[in-house]
Amino acid sequence: MTTRRLFLALAPALIAAPATAHHGWGSYEAQNPQTLTGEIERVEFVNPHATIWLKTPGKTWEVVLAPPFRMTSRGVAADGLRAGMTVTVMGYPHRQKENELRAEWIRIGETVTQLR
User: What is the pTM of this model?
Assistant: First the structure.
């Protein structure tokens, strides 16, 4: 009976573990939001998350966007992000990877798209 209770108590944690392992949003500094404007150098519109490399003065950032299905459903299609475009993103820097940012929103022209 004790083993069964222990299993039932731990089951929710075991089920949730893969979801937290995938995202790992705790690796980003939510208390340190940054807004960056720059030119897109490269775009990857693939799962699990679309990514742009954003050239800003003195640094190129790897900006993690939303999954492609969410980007598309919110109005940003794969051809809506291209090398050479200037965009603004707001997000949180990674705790260990000094060039990585997880974006909360992106501004393309005058349109701001929420990503989370």
Answer: 0.79
